[in-house]
Design brief:
267 residues; alpha/beta; 2-enoyl-CoA Hydratase, Chain A, domain 1; Lyase 2-enoyl-coa Hydratase, Chain  A, domain 2; 2 domains; 7-stranded mixed sheet; 3-stranded mixed sheet; 45% helix
Length: 267
C-alpha cells in the first residue's frame, strides 16, 4: 500500500513499506532548482530523518529529464540581486543535501534524459545511481561564468577522482550514459524502458537489507577522505564491534552457516 504526504509543489514524497520514494515533480519545467525546490528539498529530507522504520530511499524524477539544475530563467529579471538570491537558495538546498547524504539508509537514484549542473551533484551524492541508456550528464557552470555549487566539488571528486571531476566542470562537458559509467559518475546503465523498474527493485532489495550496517558503512566512507588512517582504523574497529552485536549481523552469520538466504529486520 502506498501512502503520500501532503502535496509538495516541486517534490513528491511517498512511502511503500520500509522504502521512501522522493520524486522531483516539476516535469514540465525539467525539474529545476528554484526557490520552491530548495525549500521543499530541505523539508522532505527532514521528514525522511523522522520517518519511522525507514530502511532505504529511491530518488527519481517525473518527465523526460531528471533535472536541468538551476532555474536560469528566473535569474534574468533579478540580475542585480543575484548574489542574495543565490545565498538564499543555496542556504536551503545545501542544508537539505547534508540531510540527504548523511541519511543512515541507502539512497538509490534513477536518472533519465538530461541531468545538468546541480542535478548532477544531487545524483552523485546518492549511494547507487542507475541511468537510462540515453541519459546525458552535463556541467555548464563554467560555460555560464559560474562556479559550482550543490556539493559538486565534493561528490564529483568522490565519484570520479579529482582530476576527472575538475575537467568535467571546467570544460562544461556533457557525458553520455556509458561515458558517465566509465568515469564512475553512475553505477549501472540499463535500457530506458527498464530504468524505473530496475531502480525500484534495487531500492526494495536494499530496504530488505541490514539497515544498521548500511548506515555505518555510509558514515565511514563519508569520513574517510578527511580522517587519518589511525583514526579511520579505530573507527572501523569500534563500529564493526557494535554492528556485529545487531540482530541482522547475527542473522547474516547464521544464514551463511545454514546455507540459506538471510532475512534482515533492520535491527
Amino acid at each position: 500500500m502506498t501512502t503520500e504526504t501532503p502535496a509538495q509543489p516541486s517534490i513528491r514524497l511517498e512511502r511503500e513499506g520500509a522504502l521512501g520514494i522522493v520524486t522531483l515533480s516539476q516535469a514540465a519545467r525539467a525539474n529545476p532548482f528554484d526557490g520552491a525546490f530548495t525549500r521543499d528539498f530541505k523539508r522532505v529530507f527532514a521528514q525522511l530523518w523522522d520517518m519511522p522504520d525507514l530502511r532505504a530511499v529511491l530518488m527519481k524524477a517525473d518527465g523526460a529529464n531528471f533535472s536541468f539544475g538551476g532555474d536560469l530563467k528566473s535569474f534574468g529579471p533579478v540580475l542585480d540581486k543575484l548574489g542574495p538570491l543565490v545565498r538564499e537558495w543555496t542556504g536551503d538546498l545545501h542544508m537539505g543535501l547534508q540531510r540527504a547524504w548523511t541519511l543512515p539508509v541507502p539512497i538509490v537514484c534513477a536518472v533519465q534524459g538530461f541531468a545538468m549542473g546541480g542535478g548532477v551533484a544531487l545524483l552523485a551524492g546518492c549511494d547507487v545511481v542507475l541511468a537510462g541508456q540515453s541519459a546525458k550528464f552535463g556541467s555548464a557552470f563554467a560555460q555560464l561564468g559560474f562556479s559550482c555549487d550543490s556539493g559538486s566539488s565534493a561528490v564529483l571528486t568522490a565519484r570520479m577522482g579529482a582530476a576527472r571531476a575538475r575537467r568535467f566542470v571546467l570544460l562544461a562537458e556533457v557525458l553520455a550514459a556509458q561515458d558517465a559509467l566509465n568515469a564512475g559518475l553512475v553505477d549501472r546503465v540499463v535500457p530506458d524502458d527498464q530504468l524505473q523498474e530496475s531502480a525500484l527493485a534495487l531500492a526494495t532489495q536494499l530496504a530488505n537489507g541490514p539497515t544498521i550496517a548500511y548506515g555505518q558503512i555510509k558514515r565511514l566512507f563519508l569520513k574517510a577522505s578527511g580522517a587519518s588512517m589511525t583514526d579511520l582504523l579505530e573507527d572501523e574497529a569500534i563500529t564493526l564491534s557494535r554492528v556485529a552485536a545487531t540482530a541482522d549481523a547475527q542473522e547474516g552469520i547464521a544464514a551463511m552457516l545454514e546455507k540459506r538466504k538471510p532475512v534482515f529486520q533492520g535491527r
